[in-house]
Amino acid sequence: FVDLPVERKSAWGPGEYASRQLEVNGMLLADYLSAVTGQPVEQSTPLVQGHVGTITPAAYLRALLGGPRDDALTEGRVAIGYCDACLDGTCGVLLAATLGVVGDLVTWFDIGFERFDEGEAPKLTPFWKKSQPVEPAPGPAAPPWQPQPFDPPVALWFNRDDYLETLQAERRRLGA
After folding, report:
1. How far apart are CA 167 and CA 54, in angstroms?
2. How does DSSP classify residue 172?
């Protein structure tokens, strides 16, 4: 994670807001994915000081650790990036990956966008108001989020111990 003021054009008003962004190989995740895929990737984490969408920072980190998810994606998929304006999936687009563990490695594979494929995305609450966490939909009645992995496929591998320590350190920093 790296501290980065980001320019947001949202209901909070224009301006820079303090945020924490994922960094991969010395590059912001969005910039790294844009360079690898040749297409714009403008998603970021929901870790923005003073602003919380429907996905709390604690829920985001818990999902990246393989715990319960607040996003109703298909089994094994986790949201790794959200819309800069709403900080959650209410716009109908998420950056996601399939989370896996292979020996001493944590993998994010089939990285790509998830799109809400049944009309307009659910508006859980106005994104400029602090909201309560949303309970995930039970079982097969989950909303129809459809994975759209990048082509060619993009995957990232992390040393398991480093991955866990990074996420646990971020949880401690947030007091989550």
Report:
1. 20
2. H
Q: How far apart are CA 52 and CA 129, in angstroms?
A: 8
Give 73-76's long-range contacts (Cβ < 8 A, gap of 24+): 73/114, 73/142, 73/145, 73/147, 74/142, 74/145, 74/147, 76/100
Q: Which residue has the tokens 């003021």?
A: 5
- Each residue of 50-63: pLDDT tens digit? 666 677 888 899 99
Predicted model pTM = 0.78
68 near 51, Cβ under 8 Å? Answer: no
**Separation CA 127–CA 42 (nearest Å):** 18
Neighbours of 61 (CB within 10 A): 22
